[in-house]
Amino acid sequence: MKKPASFRVLLLASALAGASVTLAAPAVAHHGWSWAEPEETTLDATITAISLAPPHPELTVADATGREWTIELGNPGRTARAGFAEGTANPGDRITILGNRALDGSAVMKAVRITLDGRAFDFYPERIDG
Question: pTM for the complete prediction?
Answer without folding.
Answer: 0.74
